[in-house]
Specification:
Elements (H helix, E strand, L loop, with lengths): L2 E2 L8 H14 L3 E4 L4 H14 L2 E3 L9 E3 L13 E3 L4 H4 L8 H12 L7 E9 L8 E7 L2 H10 L1 E2 L1 H7 L6 E6 L23 E5 L4 E5 L4 H4 L2 H17 L2 E3 L2 E6 L5 E7 L6 H5 L9 E6 L3 E5 L5 E4 L4 E5 L9 H6 L5 E3 L2 E2 L5 E2 L11 E2 L5 E2 L14 E5 L16 E2 L2 E5 L9 E3 L3 H9 L2 E3 L12 E3 L12 H13 L8 E5 L18 H12 L5 E4 L2 E4 L15 H7 L4 H16 L7 H15 L1
Parallel strand pairs: 1-2, 2-6, 4-19, 5-10, 7-9, 9-11, 14-26, 26-30
Antiparallel strand pairs: 3-4, 6-7, 6-8, 10-11, 12-16, 13-14, 13-15, 16-17, 17-25, 18-24, 19-24, 20-21, 22-23, 27-30, 28-29, 31-32
Helix pairs in contact: 2-5, 11-12, 11-16, 15-16
Length: 609
């Protein structure tokens, strides 16, 4: 039996027994309990630098920061190896991969047998959300990857204080992870990223027992099990069962020049500017945007009947390519120190570079595969398109003072959005909660030529931006949203809006400048939450009047004609949407709530008039 390398810091008998059971299966060299301290972080970081797995960046350029290069087979979430192993297949629904849990556990236990030989088993007690918050949840991740430990230090709250809140009998979500590459006696990784081949990679969720098992990948959300696995796939099931919400949403704080505050949560599919919106720098004088969270929101009803949200994470796991001082200054500053970079390029002076950073590559680089790279002769990109930075939220200059308030912040508005060059206006507001749920259920982005499985111009539906992250049948998930609306009154529930920053003219020109100017749309949303804000009722919901959105200083860029087009009701375009929405809804069969069928029918009737 593997020995404990430090004192066991808890009297939670069930937890200790669980750790030892897994150690007996995985057969590590030793068991180490993480305390979450800076000394622990620094020691593990230095060990990985010494072993050649990490490169320490130039402290004058990126203080206390590291660069890792993963294996080319291990660079992103692997949707086709991600499973919701519910007891009944229909509970996983049509949008998830399902395997019988007994069969999957048998397969994975075979893989876990002896998988940690020659490695340390790290026990990571972590809190999703401020430690002790009534909205937070505790998880414990077992891993044989020090890379995972230091990333979890940044992305969650790790260590002794979490075990104190857990006490002797508290509930925790058990998370097991292994890179799936045992070492023979005396063998080492020789600085090469350890992982298993793709067919042995599994990211498995067991909703009924609230377990997460991950094998074979050391990368991102496949390995940092607090991220999508717990924060969305398992938490969405807990939220359904316990009457709250676990959503793939940013949370921002909006302050008017008069000092009034509103909190907005927004769900956007990937490549729709979600992180940029969470860290927006407004172009409108006197308005202020602060960040509560950039990716995930957990929400519970307060005694006053309002939804209160926390950001369950403690850091940002951001996509580096395309991030620059213009597109997202606050993210760049967040990642300027104490940051873990994965799969970006290394400059000659020990700094990082990626495509879209805002300046040309300075000289010869080492690319994400560890090869010399020169812009003049390169045939491939220097940074992987999914290269990441793991940065502390506390480093963000726009972080809101209440981002760690255990009580959460009261949400005034929900935003849904997708990337649509036509049909969907710049912004519209739902007529009711039920109509808003309908809007969330049909979120979609137009597919570009880069997507191989669908024809360019097709709309890929990503309801509530939750398609890869909902831990149960999405038809039941829509029903859960409808039930949430029954738990409070219309004046207490968040108002629901749909935004589309990506409208184009027929000749391909962007109609809206986006980025900081999106604060102008946020201002109108703020006013609508206050019962002001000029609007007209249309067949698809409430739309701003042409003069309702503040264009001060923007008149040259966005003309009255542009504004008319941005806010036009495209009846023909909407009629074309119906077939696509019906095909999308058919997937859910009789699990689709009747209320959503009724909403679609009502919209058809309104547009036919």
């Amino acid at each position: 039996m593997a020995k404990h390398l430090n004192a066991i810091p808890t009297k939670h008998a069930k937890l200790v027994e669980w750790v030892e059971q897994w150690a007996a299966i995985c057969k590590p060299e030793g068991i180490y309990w993480c305390d979450g301290s800076k000394a622990e972080y620094d020691r593990l970081a230095e060990e990985m630098v010494q072993s050649g797995l990490a490169v320490r960046l130039n402290p004058a350029k990126k203080p206390n920061s590291l660069l890792f290069r993963s294996d080319p087979s291990d660079v992103a979430r692997v949707e086709n190896r991600t499973f919701i192993a519910s007891e009944k297949q229909e509970d996983a629904g049509p949008t998830n991969n399902w395997i019988d849990p007994k069969e999957l556990k048998k397969t994975m236990l075979g893989l876990y047998d002896g998988c940690m030989k020659g490695r340390i088993l790290y026990v990571i007690p972590f809190s999703m959300g401020p430690v002790g918050s009534n909205i937070a949840k505790i998880g414990v991740e077992l891993t044989d990857s020090a890379y995972v430990v230091i990333n979890m230090h940044i992305m969650t709250r790790v260590g002794t204080k979490v075990l104190e809140v857990l006490g002797d009998k508290g509930e925790f979500v058990p998370c097991v992870h292994s890179v799936g590459k045992p070492l023979a006696e005396g063998e080492s990784d020789h600085g090469i990223w350890p992982c298993a081949p793709i067919e042995k990679k599994y990211i498995a969720h067991f909703p009924e027992t609230r377990e997460i098992w991950s094998f074979g990948s050391g990368y991102g959300g496949n390995a940092l099990l607090g991220k999508k696995c717990l924060a969305l796939r398992i938490a969405s099931v807990q939220a359904r069962d316990e009457g709250w919400m676990a959503e793939h949403m940013l949370i921002l704080k909006l302050t008017s020049p008069e000092g009034k505050v509103k909190y907005v949560a927004g769900a956007f599919p990937s490549a729709c500017g979600k992180t940029n919106l969470a860290m927006l720098i407004p172009t409108l004088k006197g308005w202020k945007v602060e960040t509560i969270g950039d990716d995930i929101a957990w929400m519970k009803f307060g005694k006053d009947g309002r939804l209160y949200a926390i950001n369950p994470e403690a850091g940002f796991f951001g996509v580096a390519p395309g991030t620059n001082m213009e597109s997202n200054k606050n993210a760049m500053i967040s990642a300027s120190r104490d940051t873990i970079f994965t799969n970006v390029a290394l400059t000659e002076d020990g700094d990082v570079w990626w495509e879209g950073i805002g300046y040309d590559a300075p000289g010869t680089l080492i690319d994400w595969k560890g090869q010399k790279w020169d812009a003049a002769t390169a045939t491939e990109k220097a940074a992987h398109p999914n290269a990441r930075f793991t940065a502390r939220a506390s480093n963000c200059p726009a972080i809101a003072p209440e981002w760690e308030d255990p009580a959460g912040v009261p949400i005034d508005a929900f935003l849904f959005g997708g990337r649509r060059p036509n049909t969907i206006p710049l912004v519209h507001q739902s007529m009711s909660w039920e109509h808003g749920v309908f809007m969330g259920s049909i979120v979609g982005s137009e597919v570009t030529a880069a997507a191989l499985d669908l024809k360019a111009g097709t709309v890929r539906r990503d309801p509530f931006a939750m398609l890869p992250f909902c831990g149960y049948n999405m038809g039941d998930y829509f029903a859960h949203w409808l039930e949430i609306g029954q738990k409070s009154t219309a004046d207490k529930l968040p108002k629901i809006f749909f935004v589309n920053w990506f409208r184009k003219t027929a000749d391909g020109r962007w109609l809206w400048p986006g980025f900081g100017d999106n604060s102008r749309v946020l201002k109108w949303i703020f006013e609508r939450c206050d019962g002001t804000g000029k609007a007209v009722e249309t067949q698809i919901g409430y739309m701003p009047t042409v003069d309702a959105i503040d264009r001060t200083g923007l008149e040259d860029k966005v003309t009255d004609a542009d504004m008319k087009e941005l806010l036009a009701l495209d009846i023909d375009g909407w009629k074309k949407e119906f077939d696509s929405i019906k095909v999308h809804y058919e997937k859910f069969g009789d699990k689709l709530p009747q209320a959503l069928r009724d909403q679609l029918k009502a919209l058809e009737q309104r547009l036919a008039k």
